[in-house]
From TrEMBL:
This is Nicotinate-nucleotide--dimethylbenzimidazole phosphoribosyltransferase. It catalyses: 5,6-dimethylbenzimidazole + nicotinate beta-D-ribonucleotide = alpha-ribazole 5'-phosphate + nicotinate + H(+); NAD(+) + ATP = ADP + NADP(+) + H(+). InterPro entries: ATP-NAD_kinase_N, ATP-NAD_kinase_PpnK-typ_C, NAD/diacylglycerol_kinase_sf, NADK, Nict_dMeBzImd_PRibTrfase, Nict_dMeBzImd_PRibTrfase_N, Nict_dMeBzImd_PRibTrfase_sf, Rossmann-like_a/b/a_fold. Belongs to the CobT family. Keywords: Cobalamin biosynthesis, Glycosyltransferase, Kinase, NAD, NADP, Transferase. Transmembrane segments: none annotated. One of its GO terms (biological process) is NAD+ metabolic process. The lineage of its organism: Bacteria, Pseudomonadati, Planctomycetota, Planctomycetia, Gemmatales. Its EC number is 2.4.2.21. SUPFAM superfamilies: NAD kinase/diacylglycerol kinase-like, Nicotinate mononucleotide:5,6-dimethylbenzimidazole phosphoribosyltransferase (CobT), Nucleotidylyl transferase. GO terms for molecular function: ATP binding; NAD binding; NAD+ kinase activity; nicotinate-nucleotide-dimethylbenzimidazole phosphoribosyltransferase activity. It comes from the Bacteria. Pathway: Nucleoside biosynthesis; alpha-ribazole biosynthesis; alpha-ribazole from 5,6-dimethylbenzimidazole: step 1/2.
Length: 735
């Protein structure tokens, strides 16, 4: 469950098989962790402790020099405990009187000034000095995010820092210039802590603030960037990061209980009992999906399973990567292999999120679908009598899974596994025709054919894009249509489109090979949104105005017509709403945010986790695919790009600042984020995906989808450049 409410978190924890007295203090920790990470399955590693060092006051003699030396050499208690808890330790000097040490994995010198002013006689730091230290802290959060850190603990060094923190915590009144107000009584370490907390929260990291300086930094961060506190977990204070390190085992325990504890069995009255749905979950690489995989699914349905969930696995962190097709191709192949089997759901979640969900966790994740059965091959249970099966040794919590989970064990006819090797709850299913996917890949690599071990549609896709051959996968390919069958989508309010569809009606089929779209670009975008999971090529026929995504003409028979297929990515768009909820969608052309009031929008642009433009003032910002570069992006001054270009276009609408703003092309691998800088409701923004409004938003994160892809077909005479010129320079009326 994504972004659960407080009540949903508590209900989930209450349903765990825990002692009658509950989890005690651990329950509170588990609640905080779930709330901070927005999930019921939080993680606590990789993790890092950042300690900021600064002296306070005008005294030119450092009071923290010895502590820095002990920390960086590994001799201090904090360094020893960090190693014992598997926590990376980094010391950052942001304001000591010490000479800087040589840069090392444990030490960085990012000094903004030495010491501070006398807070009793004047400001300890100027607003600019406070802001510089704040930026140093933001940089540390960005480095942690880039390194894959999930939990970021932070504190300051020295007893003086605690006294400064108390002065900062005593300030509660809002201020027009928070940097100047907090700088007057604070220090460089507290400023850096505030920057780290604010940026880490924005990047989605969980922040552990256990000392007084860290809590002061969180206090400042919340006033500079409201909403930051939601991702901060506060702990008991001990100096020099010890409090944070002592809190980590409790976080680990909470995460382990949430991930691995079975749910409590609740006896329900018989009168309210509903028939239990039997659901089989079939996981694997499906690289490629074979006729054997399909036969397994069909037999499961025949044996009384109400639903079969096919889940291509994401990358594992506990072994070498063995897949040979990119996730988007595996997603397409799996959809093609199973799309016409009733009662089958293809779940692409792991591929889309580039993660591997342990088998043991699937019961909680999919338990609301019914009684879950794990489909495994017979070799997974071999050695079960001696607790030496693959389930025991390779699955997370394998011993518990063996004893409590339900299994469907696949085996060749006449070769059932030994009864003593079977788990307590299992069902045998005899299936013939198994062939290793590695053998199919090798056969294709050696210029052979994947048939008859894959379906016709799977084989056609493999050949079309040279999968498993070692050749570069093309962005475009030419085909000749043979026996085309159509799904026709026409703009229902356009008489011109409906008339244009008539010559093709004889090719309509309930089992189509192509999708014919008649209308304008808006009709094509809607058709792609509605039917992309059919994994069929789209052919457009212009019955609108310009129709950049449409052919001008197509022969009514379509037989043997040459078509150029462009393989075009879709974008995954994750938007955060003002109430903190997140919505996810796909865009084929573009996604943008724009001002939702008479005031200009103030926006920040991040690319790949790094802030590239701290503030944009204007009407809005947009990211477009090559297919969308000729639409709204062009109206914003961007240049249209070829359909096969591996780029995204970043454009702005009526940008006032920064001056001389120009649209830019980014690699399609870029992750782009737009975040509002409006914290008082004066400058709200709203979001759009392919022209469809999603309402007010706080931020929008855009990246290429790892599972969604569209094939768009054009006749060879298609010329996008000519259409663009015609749109920019329309022919003049005759004299």
């Amino acid at each position: 469950m994504s972004n659960p409410t407080q009540n949903e978190i508590r209900d989930h924890i209450a349903a765990l098989a825990a002692p009658e007295g509950g989890l005690g203090e651990l329950m509170a920790v588990a609640e905080q962790l779930c709330r901070a990470q927005g999930t019921l399955r939080p993680v606590t590693s990789p993790r890092r402790l950042v300690l900021f060092a600064a002296d306070h006051g005008p005294d030119a003699e450092s009071r923290v020099g010895d502590a820095i030396h002990d920390l960086t050499s590994g001799a201090s208690a904090t360094a020893v405990l960090a190693k014992a808890t598997g926590t990376e330790l980094i010391v950052v000097d942001v304001g000591t009187w010490c000479d800087g040490l040589a840069e090392s994995p444990r030490y960085r010198c990012r000094k903004t000034r030495s010491g501070s002013g006398d807070a009793g006689a004047g400001p300890a730091l100027t607003a600019d000095e406070f802001r510089a230290a704040f930026s140093a802290g933001q940089k540390e959060a960005e480095l942690a995010h880039a390194a894959g850190v999930r939990v970021l603990a932070a504190d300051a060094i020295g007893a003086d820092s605690a006294a400064v923190a108390e002065r900062v915590l005593a300030l509660h009144e809002p201020a027009d210039d928070p940097m100047g107000v907090f700088g007057a009584v604070g220090g460089s370490d507290v400023a850096a802590l505030a920057g780290l907390v604010a940026k880490a929260s924005e990047l989605g990291l969980t922040v552990l603030a256990a000392g007084a300086p860290a809590r002061a930094g969180a206090h400042v961060a919340e006033r500079v960037a409201p909403g930051t506190a939601a991702r901060v977990i506060e702990g008991r204070g001990s100096p020099d990061g010890l409090g944070a390190l002592l809190a980590l085992p409790a976080l680990d325990a909470a995460a382990a209980v949430l991930a691995r504890t079975a749910r409590r069995h609740v006896d329900r009255p018989a009168a309210r009992a509903k028939p239990t749905r039997k659901v089989a979950v079939f996981t694997g690489s499906f690289d490629p999906p074979t006729t054997y995989h399909r036969k397994v699914v069909e037999l499961l349905r025949e044996k009384g399973f109400d639903e079969v969930i096919v889940r291509p696995s994401g990358p594992r962190c506990d072994g070498p990567e063995v897949e040979h097709a990119k996730p988007v191709h595996r997603a397409i192949l799996t959809d093609l292999a199973f799309k016409d089997v009733p009662g089958v759901t293809v779940d692409l979640s792991d591929l889309d999120d580039a993660t591997f969900t342990p088998h043991f966790s699937l019961d909680d994740l999919l338990g609301d679908r019914g009684e879950l059965w794990h489909v495994v091959p017979a070799e997974f249970v071999t050695g079960g009598r001696a607790s030496e099966s693959a389930i025991h040794n390779k699955w997370e919590l394998g011993l518990d899974a063996w004893a409590t989970r339900r299994f469907v064990v696949l085996h060749p006819p006449g070769a059932a596994p030994d009864a003593d090797d079977l788990p307590p709850k299992c069902q045998l299913l005899a299936v013939d025709g198994h062939i290793a996917t590695a053998d199919i890949r090798l056969r294709v690599f050696q210029h052979g054919n994947a048939r008859p071990d894959v379906s016709e549609q799977v084989d056609e896709y493999i050949r079309r894009y040279h999968l498993f051959t070692g050749l570069t996968i093309p962005r475009e390919t030419r085909v000749h249509l043979s026996g085309p069958r159509l799904k026709i989508v026409a703009a229902d309010r356009s008489e011109k489109a409906l008339r244009a569809a008539e010559p093709f009606r004889h090719l309509e089929s309930p089992d189509p090979t192509h999708i014919l779209v008649l209308g304008g670009d808006g009709t094509m975008l809607q058709a792609i949104r509605d039917h992309w999971r059919l994994r069929l090529p789209f052919l457009g026929l212009n019955a609108g105005t310009l129709g950049f995504l449409m052919n001008e003409r197509l022969p009514p028979s379509l037989e043997n017509t040459e078509i150029v297929l462009y393989r075009m990515p879709m974008m995954r768009v994750d938007a955060e709403l003002p109430d903190g909820k997140r919505v996810q969608s796909l865009a084929f052309a573009d996604a943008w945010v724009e001002r939702d009031s008479g005031q200009a929008a103030w926006l920040k642009i991040d690319v790949d986790g790094h802030t590239q433009v701290p503030r944009v003032v204007g009407d809005g910002l947009l990211v477009a695919t090559p297919a969308g570069s000729s639409a709204y992006a062009r109206a914003m001054g961007a240049t249209s790009v070829p359909l096969t270009a591996p780029v995204f276009t970043l454009a702005g609408s009526n940008v006032f600042r920064p001056r001389f703003w120009k649209p830019v092309a980014l690699p399609e691998t870029a992750h782009v984020s737009f975040t509002t800088l409006d914290f008082n409701g004066k400058r709200p923004i709203r979001g759009f995906i392919d022209g469809q409004p999603i309402g007010p938003v706080k931020s929008m994160h855009i990246r290429v989808s790892t599972v969604a892809n569209v094939e768009l077909g054009f006749t060879p005479e298609f010329d996008l450049s000519a259409r663009l010129l015609r749109s920019m320079f329309p022919p003049s009326d005759p004299l």
